[in-house]
From TrEMBL:
InterPro entries: GLPGLI. It comes from Frigoriflavimonas asaccharolytica. It comes from the Bacteria. This is GLPGLI family protein. Pfam families: Porph_ging (PF09697).
Length: 252
């Protein structure tokens, strides 16, 4: 039975690898008040682009991402661009926002997570058999489900390094910072520019961008303290309490 299943997966995977382009649509729960769609595209040349767009829900009075993780989306799409042909580490270029400024960020040599795969733990997502994997990625414990039926070592955001496409991934113990597959199109016909021109944005290296985010968080904390009533609990925003998936970087 195992040999038959392996043969079926091999044949199905071969068909997928011959596809010109695939598209995976994820629902990305970014914070308790913001949910968006993220569309992942992979073409036959090994180009990968993930586009965060299409706001589903938002708080009533938000324009940009606040350092406390509250809403931050305008109609502007955010791109995460990479390639498939890097195994132990990966380079990403992507767009991100601090306040009203959009940055073109170079995140180089992102280490491959040290995934621990549990083939005894499986689920089905969007009709694909998926296996559980766990790892620590930049300070957060991650739980992912990947499918060997879609033989691309990729996933949403900056997740990669498993022997199949990641269809569900989340930070353990949280009901946000998670990506859930909504649909998989194995023969996508959309015209996608995998190398969009982003030169109009502020170019910045990842370390410098992280420093800017931390400084912005400190400014937000000071504003918060000014408006917090005396006697109320005041929480601090410090690098060890960064919001989002990436809370501690490999250089720290």
């Amino acid at each position: 039975m195992k040999l038959i299943l392996a043969f079926i997966i091999f044949i199905f995977s071969s068909i997928i690898l011959n596809a010109q382009q695939i598209k995976v649509k994820y629902k990305y729960v970014r914070s308790p008040i913001v949910t968006i769609y993220e569309n992942l595209y992979i073409n036959k040349k090994g180009n990968v682009i993930s586009i965060q767009d299409s706001l589903i829900s938002n708080s009533r009075n938000s324009n940009n991402l606040n350092p406390n993780g509250s809403a931050n989306l305008e109609s502007k799409a955010l791109y995460f661009i990479s390639d498939l042909n890097i195994i132990t580490q990966k380079d990403f270029v992507y767009l991100d926002i601090i306040g009203e400024n959009t940055y073109f960020v170079y995140d180089q040599n992102v280490p491959r997570p040290n995934w621990k795969i549990d083939y005894k733990n499986s689920k089905t997502f969007a009709g694909f058999l998926c296996y559980k994997a766990e790892a620590v990625f930049r300070g957060s414990k991650i739980i992912a489900y990947f499918s060997k039926e879609i033989p691309y070592s990729s996933g949403p955001y900056k997740f990669f390094g498993l022997p199949g496409l990641i269809l569900d991934v989340r930070v353990e113990g949280k009901d946000y910072d998670l990506w859930k597959v909504e649909s998989v199109d194995l023969d996508n016909k959309e015209q996608i520019n995998f190398k969009p021109k982003l030169n109009q944005y502020n170019k910045i290296q990842m370390k410098d961008f992280v420093n800017l985010k931390d400084e912005d968080g400190a400014k937000f904390q000071k504003k918060l303290q000014k408006v917090t009533p005396m006697g109320s609990t005041r929480t601090s925003i410090v690098p060890s309490n960064r919001f989002g998936v990436e809370t501690k970087y490999e250089w720290e």
